[in-house]
Write a structure and sequence with these properties.
The complex is a heterodimer of chains A (228) and B (132). With 228 residues, chain A is an alpha+beta fold. Chain A has helices spanning 16-23, 29-39, 43-53, 68-71, 200-208, and strands spanning 74-78, 87-91, 104-111, 114-118, 122-124, 129-136, 140-147, 153-157, 164-166, 169-179, 185-194, 219-227. Chain B is mainly α and 132 residues long. Chain B has helices spanning 4-20, 29-49, 61-66, 69-81, 84-95, 100-107, 111-131. Classes of the chains: A alpha+beta (228), B mainly alpha (132).
Chain lengths: 228, 132
Amino acid sequence: MSNPFAERLWTACFSSLLLERFLFNELTAAEAQRVRAHLSTCAACSSVLEGMRRAEPLPPLRVVPLRPNRARRAIAVAAAVAAASLLLVLRSHPGERIKGPGFALAAYVQHGVEVRRAGPGETVAAGDALRFVVTAPVAGYVAVLSVDPQGRASIYYPQAARAAPIAAGDETALPLATRLDATLGEERITALLCPSPVELGPLRAALERGNLDFPEDCQVARWHFVKR
Amino acid sequence: MGNEAEAQEALQEVFAALLRDPRAVHTDVSAWLYKATTHWCLNQLRKRRNGTRLEETQPLGEAAAVGSAEAMAEARRLLARLPAQVAAAAVYHHVDGMTHSEVAAMLGCSRRQVGYLLERARDQVAQEEQSA
């Protein structure tokens, strides 16, 4: 019988934790520089790091229902898309509420381990995660669509053919986080609140053709961000 | 864990724990994830110990790169029998390649204590080799 604890099974000079922290920008500038300097001369560590970068995306986590009474003070959501480390922690902003009777869209952006509430035109980075929050004056069906800088439209929420039901309420977090790809430029987001579960495929196609006319009985909220 | 389905379950459980109490993360997210994942997996291995014998399935690709499948399977059997802190120190050092300082930070103990824990892991394995 071999003794697996007689020596390290890990083959790189740096630990997997240190390399993970390097990948997720959790190291100080000096520590990161030390890792970079070492990687330039060490094939073993470079190879391990490359393997970690190429890691297959993990399956999406099951959606955890949000409890309205908790949503106002602290909401946490996690979605795993790569290397077991996509975290999106949403925090409430005391005193900050969307006012007025209208349908409204807001978003939180997670960059590394930091989470912030995003304003219109927010600058974000590829790899950041977004979570949308809607204020619905009446119960209805909600959807969030996007047009990327190259004019491609996609459906961010829900992951279904039709708009998803939502109860009336302020700042309801949609139960999905979206990881941003590497396409740089301005991305335009359109959220709809409709009285019926509208079919989203035709709306996505129309958005891609540049047609911004949505069903008349739907309320529309728009938002955009810039990926740099 | 020895197979992908259980590794995915571990992932789900760790993130579910984060959802229940996001304030648990006081330090870097990576470090918290390592700690929570190691803790959960070792508990599972320990629970299995008294049940059916570990069923060794195809190792994960990454596990195969880290060490031989045989060594990893042996490691899982041994980890299930070690005291919790000894097992955690062994995983951090031997599987994740952490230095004594990094392990000490993860366990919240001194580097000297880490040396002692790793020595205990080696000794216990050596004893089992002799009695096998």
